[in-house]
Amino acid sequence: MSRGILSGSDWRRPRIRRTALGVHGVLLLALFAVGLGPMLWLAKAAVTPTQDTLRAPLALWPNGIDWANLSTAWSRVEIDKYFLNTVILAGGSWFVQLLVATTAGFALSVLRPRYGKLLTGVVLATLFVPSVVLLVPLYLTVVDPPLLKASLINSFWAVWLPAGANAFNILIVQRFFANLPREVFEAARVDGAGPFRLFWSVVLPMSRPILGVVSVFAVIAAWKDFLWPLLVLPDPDLQPLSVRLPALQKFVELDVFLAALAISTVIPVALFLVFQRLFLKSGALGGAVKG
Amino acid sequence: MKSFTPVAIAVALAASLTACSGSDDSADQSTPSGPVTVKVARDPGLDKGAIAAFDERVAQFEKANQNIDIVPQEYNWTATTFTAQLAGGTLPDVFTVPFTDGRGLIERKQIADISGQVASLPYAGKFSPNVAKAGQAADGKMWAVPIAAYGQALHYNRTLFKQAGLDADAPPTSWDEVRTAAKQIAEKTGKAGYAQLTTDNTGGWILTTLDYALGGRAEKIDGSTATAELDTPQMTEALQLLKTMRWDDNSMGSNFLYDWGGINQAFAAGQIGMYVSGGGNYGSLFTQNALKPADYGVTVVPLADNPEAGVLGGGTLATVSAKSNESVQAAAVKWIDFYYMQKLTDQASAVLDAKTTAASKQPVGAPQLPVFDKATYDESLKWVAEYVNVPLAQMKPYTDKMFDQPLVTEPTRSTQEVYKILDPVVQSVLTKKDADIADLLKKADAEAQTLLDRN
Amino acid sequence: MVTETRPAPLVVSPRIQGRSRRTPLTWARGGGLSTLVFLLPLLLVFGIFSWIPIGRAVLMSFQETNLVTPSTFVGLQNFKDVLADPLLWTAVKNTLYFALLALLFGYPVPLVAAVVMSEVRRFKGLYSALAYLPVVIPPVVAVLLWKFFYDAGPTGVFNTILGTVGLGPVSWLQDSGSAMPALVLEATWAAAGGTVIIYLAALTGVSTDLYEAAEIDRASIWRKIWHVTLPQLRGVLLITFILQIVGTSQVFLEPFLFTGGGPANSTTTILLLIYDYAFANSLGGEYGAATALSIMLAVVLGILSAIYFRLTRSWSKS
């Protein structure tokens, strides 16, 4: 029987039961107000004219609903363009991260070269370096990349490629692969599978759970990214929502701006509601791994 | 055996990586006889009419210069993003900077030396001396072209004035009157009577403006030594005025963190009665912040009764990026001449520019200071008189008196950095009731002096 | 990391087969090349975008770089300049203040919430979803929204709410005393949900036998929490504590978007200062100072974490 701090007999005592339910109720109300409240307000304000929002922010549409805000934000303020940029940036980052993490995890956990431990150590060491240390030199690397003769500024690659240098992904993928049953690999090897077949047809299909977790992390991180795209994508046509919205605030009327903010939250919230368990599991996994 | 697959994959990966160098090199690649591409700056956040007007001008230029291809690029000078863009080489080939940065950019060779091409322009020698200095290197060669000059002005909202019972045609002429008017507006309408720029180096900019208007200066240059003059009676008086309006009169509203775009937006939205900023702001207010023309009024910054009192003046320079090659530079100068300068010197161009701008319902005729001399300026106004569509009558308090006020250039050494030191001073006075003005100014002065000594 | 007996590697070295010495060809044939191919994305991406920049950061902190002329070596000058900057001490003070406030608001509250939530018997998912929702909102959107909420006039959203219960308008971001707490409030709102979920997961791992043993000793609910729950959570609590310290020391987004470091530098944090050094001067950044400060921050955080782990090793269970 699953139980927490309160035992079965605790629950049967009326005073404890009432207090517990009361506390739960208060918590639920608080969560509604604090967690959902701002979002609901934003949804309301997105279709409210500016003057109403300024004069009576808590009122519910005293002068009627202004649906035009949404279409204005989408087309005149071109939120659709920045939205698309965000999606493209997230997609590319996701792909690069998956590519790096799966190939590296496979090589280090399954193929296990002799220098594997050393390489793993060097990769994990970067976890202890705060990302701010990389800010300036990475920027200069992007401005003047090795191998290439042109700067990567104003190119999506400047965001996609550095995203792959994520030691945390390597860590969790490597752990996952290391825990896969080796017998399956042995069997495949005996059947004549080389490393590429092994990777593509055996390991990857078995890794759906961890790939899901890495994907969630990657997409969320890309959606939230602000400082880095701000620095490397100065061309407004290429900027994602996170970079463009603050700049837009100066030229756009309040009601349209709030509509733009609301539109920017739709996809992340929708993804969350659909993939709730995956999100929450990833969040918990993050904590467990760090523990 | 699988010995060839890994090699093949390795080669393919290497090849794809080096092939991915796809950024736009076109600005730097131009054959002598092929078309030259020039990326030029265009204001951000423009509405469709303004963009159409700009594109029309581009089309006119390209028609007259068949082998030059103009590519507009949204661009706005702000202290915080300019250097990143400069370093990343993503600035347009032609871009604008304020006067304050001209000398610094020239010294660091971060803009191209176009003095040769500029010297061959017909009006090269006709710039008014103060204005020309802003774009000249130490040896007098003009590396950047002054395209606009402005003096500070006091913008006010006529509608709020009327609502508060003030005469919209008789705006304040002294700082005491500003204070009274601000108080009345705050009491009668509940909006901020007076607002002050405070962030992103604009705090120091406007505080220095007030300082100049009271007869002070921020820096004293003596040959090669520069002395900071921030701890002066005039600076103290300026801050004291702000403190009184903020805490005693409560006439400055409740929000104080304003940068250039933010205060324009608040003003256009009718939340501010008066504020000091560049004299030519009407254009931005109209095109970027949807200002209602009937609300707009502007007058000169009140000057104290002091022989040193003057209006802070500045301006804009058009420059060419140091990363452009020679043919792009030559084409860029032609564009600067066409888009920015010809309307000031040549009647036909002025009329064409005014006609195009007016046809897209964009403002023509907002007040400016002359880049050349007053006579040329007056003449250029006459040329476009029939296209002027800004409420000139409402700007009369400014245009009547703007030439009578002595114009003083901004401090010339480390200007933006000195402004940055003053930002927190203004912010303190407006957000801390017990701010010690004397102490703040003493510390700022010391900091500025260290800065000037270092550079 | 889990220690286990190392199974036979899948790449068979010729040596094991009793062959003669390894040559490049035998290495390649034995699968060494294919392993390298698999490691190529890692090596390239980490090499170019992680390891080399880290090395470059250390190098640049001893140089003066202005992107036009080649960099010159200046020894410890950058470090001296940074330490002599009066704004540095303001930034350090503000960062510590932020970290402290964040700990005050954001450390106990998620724990309490998680403990309460772990006892919920119906609609548990609803609680989790509501708690985690703010974490999902993109941070920029959250900050811009709260910036509007924090309007200091009487008709600002929060001031209106406070007005309904008779509390006066608060200056929020417009006052150097209240700006930092306002920032922390939003930052906590945005991050608490994640911590709640971590604690919840840890709570489900607490063995129920321990509770039953405590009940045999007739322990009250409070005693059960104090003597069973919290000690069992020790590991997670210690980790989240140091992670929160390290994370909040690097706060950038909130000060940058809410106040730009003001009013009067009351919200300028160390990261904001690094950004200002590198990117905020319109005539060229001080890249040496920026990298020097970031290295100093990294070293301080590293030492702090090392001391912390040493101290807590005896307290936490392995």
How does this structure look, described?
The complex is a heterotrimer of chains A (291), B (455) and C (318). Chain A has 291 residues and is mainly alpha-helical. Chain A has helices spanning 8-12, 14-46, 50-55, 68-76, 79-111, 116-125, 131-143, 157-163, 167-178, 182-190, 195-206, 208-224, 227-232, 241-248, 254-274, 276-290. The radius of gyration of chain A is 24 Å and the shape is flat. Chain C folds into two domains: 1-60, no CATH class; 78-313, MetI-like fold, CATH 1.10.3720.10. Chain C contains 15 helices and two strands. In chain C, strands 1-2 form a two-stranded antiparallel ribbon. In chain C, a hairpin with a 7-residue loop joins strand 1 and strand 2. In chain C, helix 4 runs antiparallel to helix 12 (234-248), helix 5 (108-118) runs parallel beside helix 9 (179-204) and helix 14 (270-279) runs antiparallel to helix 15. Chain C is globular and about 70 Å long. The chains are: A mainly alpha (291), B alpha/beta (455), C mainly alpha (318). Chains in contact: A-B, A-C, B-C. Chains A and B meet through helix 7 of A and helix 1, helix 3 and helix 11 of B.
Q: How much β-strand is present in the residues of chain C?
A: under 5%
What kind of oligomer do you see? Answer: heterotrimer
Give the total of beta strands of chain B: 11
Number of domains of chain B: 2
Sheet with the most strands, sense and barrel status of chain C: 2 strands, antiparallel
Label this structure with key terms.
heterotrimer, A: about 290 residues, mainly alpha, MetI-like fold, 2 domains, about 75% helix, about 0% strand, B: about 450 residues, alpha/beta, D-Maltodextrin-Binding Protein, domain 2, seven-stranded mixed beta sheet, two-stranded parallel sheet, 18 helices, 11 strands, about 45% helix, disordered N terminus
Summary, kept brief:
The complex is a heterotrimer of chains A (291), B (455) and C (318). By secondary structure, chain A is mostly helical. Chain A is built from 16 helices and no strands.
Topology overview:
The complex is a heterotrimer of chains A (291), B (455) and C (318).
Chain A: H1 8-12, H2 14-46, H3 50-55, H4 68-76, H5 79-111, H6 116-125, H7 131-143, H8 157-163, H9 167-178, H10 182-190, H11 195-206, H12 208-224, H13 227-232, H14 241-248, H15 254-274, H16 276-290
Helix pairs in contact in A: 2-15, 4-15, 5-8, 5-9, 5-11, 5-12, 10-11, 12-16
Chain B: H1 4-19, E1 36-42, H2 48-64, E2 68-74, H3 79-88, E3 94-98, H4 99-107, H5 115-119, H6 129-134, E4 145-157, H7 158-163, H8 175-189, E5 192-195, H9 202-213, E6 219-222, E7 225-228, H10 233-248, H11 260-268, E8 272-278, H12 282-289, E9 296-300, E10 311-320, H13 326-345, H14 347-359, H15 374-383, H16 396-399, E11 407-409, H17 415-431, H18 437-454
Parallel strand pairs in B: 1-2, 5-8, 10-11
Antiparallel strand pairs in B: 3-10, 4-8, 4-9, 4-10, 6-7
Chain C: H1 24-29, H2 32-60, E1 63-64, E2 72-73, H3 77-84, H4 86-106, H5 108-118, H6 124-136, H7 139-149, H8 157-164, H9 179-204, H10 208-216, H11 221-232, H12 234-248, H13 253-259, H14 270-279, H15 287-313
Antiparallel strand pairs in C: 1-2
Helix pairs in contact in C: 3-15, 4-9, 4-12, 5-9, 6-9, 7-13, 9-13, 10-11, 14-15
